[in-house]
Amino acid sequence: MDSEEFREWGKKMVDFVADMWDGIPQRTPLPDKSCPSMTELELAVLDWLVIALGLPDHFRNAHPGPGCGIIQSTASDATLIAFYAARAKAVEEIKKNSTGRLQSLQADVGQKFKDFLGKTPFSGKKGDVEQEPQSDVYLHPFHDPAVFNQLVAYCSDQAHSSVEKAAMLAGVRLRKLRSEIDAAYGNYSVTAATLEAAIKEDRSRGLTPFILIATMGTTNTCAVDPIAELAPICNREKIWVHVDAAYAGGFLLCPEFRSMGAGMELVDSFNYNAHKTMMVNFDCSPLWIKDGKSAVKYFNVDPVYLKHEHQATTADYRHLQVALGRRFRSLKIWFVMRTLGIERIQKTLRDACAHAEVFSRLITASNLFELFVPRNLGLVCFRLKNESNDVNEELCNAINNDRRIHLVPSKVGDVYFLRLAVCSQLTAEENVRFAFEVITEMAQRILDKISLVGLEATKA
């Protein structure tokens, strides 16, 4: 075994051991009673990450405030939980305001009746108010579907498809805000003016905006929504702000990338996939909530068979997830941090950006290709110059069918483009140069074929 194989298998063994412990069978759904270390380690590990990522201190479990962290399986699950929490908060607020207005109206009308008739019709005595019929059907006050129809969620038109799915499952409207090329990254993000206009329009239609999903590192182009500009608007309008940083969030481990997170102190929840950028194997997706106590209140179900003697003194993660049981995901993070350390993870992230920059410069210097948007982090988006979407799609298919490298394409608006993402800790500069050679070779074949067809057509 050479040194390169030794390093590769050393990293794999960390994953193997962590996954073995994580997947021990017969894991019961009450971790604090059956496995206290599961809860305690998750509390500690997530607090370490708050510090390592430079997140606001109020997200720490150990902070005296109501903030908390929990590891979800994926960013899709985290987005769904954020949707449900924000929806419940909005329903609570709407019903509270409606009750207040009704009581005020009753008091006003009642006083007028009393002045006229000498008694009030809203005295609270039996017969004065219509009684609710007895029923076995239970309606949770925080999840009243009668209110859902007036709720509307916001996200960028570049947001991940999981946001649309979350809106479907939550039974609410979703407005995709038009993104524009920004000055900060030369990429597609949502502007404050667009958000303001959407809120004004929807409120005029009788709708209640309740959540904004801001993206840090979109799947298409690694765009970053300006949180520092959008969050103050949402705070003013009482709209929950969730930051989906599935890919780019891990790069906050490096201080030089933290400008992406400006305004993070104003958001209500934040999530990223540790299994994407932290050398942790799938699945492991930390989620932090600014007011975790309220979120727990919205999801709390407490039958007798789930009660235990420690529930008043420790975190019970079942209230912040769909499933009852859960895996020991914090152990994966613990193994990686203890075995490799933050500095090793930071080096991997910086290397990914450096290798992507090498590829970006090769694209820029080429006569065949052009960048679709400037490189951001480890993602480079490019396409053949002056060629149609069909030709670019043909190139992508040819590259993937060749099987030496693999690219995933995307499309923004009417433009089809290719994406090279540096994802592996084993990627070296020679690998991205090799990828460029393969891409150039396949592109030249296609262009030569097009030229030949054109020449034959001219002769004919």
Overview of this protein structure:
The protein has 460 residues and is of the alpha/beta class. It has 2 domains: 68-116 and 142-335, 3-Layer(aba) Sandwich (Aspartate Aminotransferase, domain 2), CATH 3.40.640; 344-459, Aspartate Aminotransferase, domain 1 (Alpha-Beta Complex), CATH 3.90.1150.10. The protein contains 14 helices and 13 strands. The strands form 3 sheets. Strands 1-9-8-7-6-2-3 form a 7-stranded mixed sheet, sandwiched between helices. α3 packs across α11 (330-339) and α4 crosses α10 (292-299). It starts with a helix and ends with a helix. Mean pLDDT is 84; it is low at 102-106 and 121-131.
Determine the structural class based on helices, strands and strand pairing.
alpha/beta
Number of alpha- plus pi-helical segments = 14
Assigned CATH architecture of the largest domain: 3-Layer(aba) Sandwich
**Domain unit count:** 2
Main beta sheet: strand number and arrangement? 7 strands, mixed
CATH class assignment of the largest domain = Alpha Beta
Topology as H/E string?
HHHEHHEHEEEHEHEEHEHHHEEHEEH
Helix percent band? 40-55%
CATH fold node name of the largest domain: Aspartate Aminotransferase, domain 2
End-to-end C-alpha gap: 61 Å
CATH superfamily of the largest domain: Type I PLP-dependent aspartate aminotransferase-like (Major domain)
Organism: Mesorhabditis spiculigera
Modified residues (N6-(pyridoxal phosphate)lysine): 276
Cofactor: pyridoxal 5'-phosphate
Keywords: Catecholamine biosynthesis, Decarboxylase, Lyase, Pyridoxal phosphate
